[in-house]
Specification:
Elements: H1 4-18, H2 27-41, H3 49-53, H4 62-70, H5 76-86, E1 91-102, E2 112-116, E3 121-134, E4 139-146, H6 155-161, H7 172-185, E5 189-195, H8 197-200, H9 203-211, E6 216-220, E7 225-228, E8 250-251, H10 252-257, E9 265-269, E10 277-288, H11 289-293, E11 301-307, E12 319-323, H12 331-338, H13 342-355, H14 365-386, H15 397-415, H16 417-434
Parallel strand pairs: 1-5, 5-6
Antiparallel strand pairs: 1-3, 2-3, 3-4, 6-12, 7-8, 7-10, 9-10, 10-11, 11-12
Helix pairs in contact: 2-14, 5-14, 15-16
Length: 435
């Protein structure tokens, strides 16, 4: 039997989902939303629609359940806007990244052989650009956009995957800017934007953030061409054939390799309650050569260099970041800013392990979008539950998921008494076999 606390949690879930009723056309869709969230929060190891449907109370037909995700004409835009409007925490670090969804076949929308940071290699997968708000204690998924290679935007494939004609090819950094604009329109306060070199290497992306007056800490490749301090060129006019070296510039990795050992400082940082990490760091004010090549205003930034402890020469594990944080920012503060991205890595693991973000087996573009936004709703509910005051240490998301799954399992047995009868028969049979 469920106790009072279990029923209270179910009532809170109902009230939470009631906030999204306005985004759906009729009551059948609202009922399907509730059932889908129940399935995501349930104890099914595989969050495919068929597996989830067997574990929800008062299930509809599989056709109706599938129709809600793959064919129902509700739009994800209003749902994302509603989700961002009801988030209880409104300020933090915006973490941008892309995640891969490995696939076996070639029919899932957007799938191709492409690099996946999740797998660390080129593989057959889908890739989504995501944005999360990291508050220092929790992460909230703010949006996800499926990256569509140009090969998926042919008339035949558009029809196959039901990709709207309004969807055009966009580089990942452009998709990231879309997610940033959505977050700002929702009134979220962004203290810092962090992302890896896949975004930081693009001058247009850094320029767009600067124009929006958004502070950033972005990974870059070691071949970033720069001037240490002010530029050494007297004119910003572009000349064909001019190289970075010919105008007194140097690559980030080459400059770092030339610095004496005493220039590096050991700095440690900690991500919440996790064990502290440490590495060698060095920071210097620089001017990227790309600004000159693209006729843009010169602006000094930080170059932050990281090297493993004990290393005396350049290594394959050296990392580089650029940031437009103020010139007065301390080295320790730069290091803390550079290592905020761990939150999204943890979030991906939780979303995939606990809620099946990458378990969607449909092939259509609307179906993928529907699955992802409802997964974000379920995740937001769990994070909101973690904010509730409780005695003892704060629950981790897997611990909370285990509690919720236990409640839903109890609810399933209440709604289907024959399950209990089968369990008792199995128990009797087990004891007979032991005898």
């Amino acid at each position: 039997m469920l106790d009072d606390r279990s029923w209270a949690l179910l009532r809170r879930l109902t009230r939470f989902l009631d906030q999204f009723k306005i985004c759906f056309g009729h009551r059948a869709q609202v009922a399907s939303l509730t059932q889908y969230v129940h399935g995501l929060l349930g104890d099914s190891a595989r969050k495919s629609m068929q597996a989830m449907l067997t574990r929800v109370t008062e299930p509809v037909s599989y056709q109706a359940f599938q129709h809600f995700i793959t064919h129902a004409p509700w739009r994800v835009g209003p749902v994302w806007r509603r989700l961002l409007a009801v988030l209880p925490e409104r300020r933090g670090v915006l973490v941008l990244d892309d995640t891969g969804f490995p696939k076996q076949g070639t029919h899932s929308v957007g799938v191709s052989r492409q690099y996946s940071g999740t797998l660390g290699k080129i593989a057959n997968c889908q890739v989504a650009v995501t944005a999360a708000l990291w508050t220092g204690a929790r992460a909230w998924l703010l949006g996800a956009e499926l990256y569509l290679p140009e090969s998926w935007l042919t008339p035949e494939r558009r029809q196959q995957a039901r990709i709207p004609g309004s969807v055009r090819f966009q580089e990942k950094w452009r998709l990231a800017l879309t997610l940033i604009r959505r977050a700002r329109r929702a009134g979220l306060q962004i203290d810092l934007v962090v992302a890896d070199a896949g975004y930081g290497d693009g001058l247009p992306f850094r320029t767009a953030l600067a124009r929006q007056r958004l502070p950033y800490m972005l990974g870059v490749a070691g071949n970033l061409a720069l001037w240490v301090g002010p530029p050494t060129v007297g004119s910003r006019r572009y000349t064909r054939g001019v190289t970075a070296a010919s105008v007194g510039a140097v690559q980030a990795a080459h400059w770092a390799a030339q610095q004496p050992r005493r220039a590096w400082r050991r700095v440690s940082w900690r991500n919440r309650s996790h064990r502290p990490w440490a590495a060698q760091f060095m920071a210097v004010r620089i001017t990227p050569v790309g600004l000159w090549r693209h006729h843009q205003r010169f602006a000094e930034e930080w170059l932050l260099c990281q090297r493993p402890l004990g290393a005396t020469t350049a290594t394959a594990h050296d990392r580089y970041f650029v940031s437009n944080l103020p010139a007065t920012t301390s080295l320790a503060a730069l290091v803390r800013a550079a290592h905020q991205r761990w939150a999204i890595e943890q979030q991906y693991q939780e979303l995939k392990t606990e809620l099946g973000l990458d378990h969607f087996e449909g092939r259509s573009y609307p179906g993928w979008q529907h699955h992802v936004v409802i997964t974000a709703i379920a995740y937001a509910f769990l994070q909101q539950e973690r904010m509730r005051p409780r005695p003892g240490p704060r629950l981790t998301l897997p611990q909370l998921c285990a509690i919720v799954q236990e409640i839903f399992t109890g609810l399933l047995f209440i709604s289907r008494p024959r399950y209990m009868h089968w369990m008792r028969q199995a128990e009797i049979r087990f004891h007979q076999l032991r005898l």
